[in-house]
User: What shape does this take?
Amino acid sequence: MEVQDAKDQGSGELEDLFDAPDDGAGASTDPFAAWGTDASGPLPAAPAAPAAVVSPASAGGARPQPQPMPSAYRQDDDADDQELRAGQSGFRVSQDVADRLKEYRQAHDLTVTEVVIEALDHIADEIPHAMARAKMPARVTPTRSRFAARGSKGPLKGTGPVQRWWQPTKDDRAVMKEMAAEAGLRDTPGILIAVALNEFLPGGAMHIAGQVRRQLTSDKTFEVPGDLALARTYGVSREIAKMALMQLQAEGLIPQDPA
Assistant: This one.
């Protein structure tokens, strides 16, 4: 132990050669002059060693371990892009549905799985109708046209390239299998999830069309507002409100534009 203390003290003396105060009596102002002094003479007092290395045995205990830095890339278990648990199942939606899913999930403090179940319950009693609406063309053929109405040649409304995940239980999978069979999607149940989310999540044309559809069904005298009024009522862009009205026209619930 004495050898280690001498070593520590020596290292401190070297630093003091530059910081030692002048005690007068003709002391040299050259900091390197101290290197030529007699070893038997007094040396400047060394300050306390700033961080002496002490072994666990000499300290009588274990050396404290540094705490790990928090990771800046730690994933949230409830993140929209995946729920990091066993038994997860994927589905794909459009970017619009993905954005609305994230907004709704965060606003209501829900997981992706919980929102998916809400959306599927929302269309559970009208799965064939929901699938038919998803297949309808985005634009309606004017009534004065001599040509037959065109069907939808693109992907079903709500589907798209954005991958999302949910975690169904064994019972959930059994229910999902029945619903997918009813929708004619026995081998691709993820499509039904996308369609359900598109109709259920606020902020989309299909959701607004669903709200107006229920009012028309319950009140035959209900007058459907224009796109500007719909946009203000539901807090969406005028373009989305127009798409909602075109959906209702495609369903034959409101008159089609003459042009």
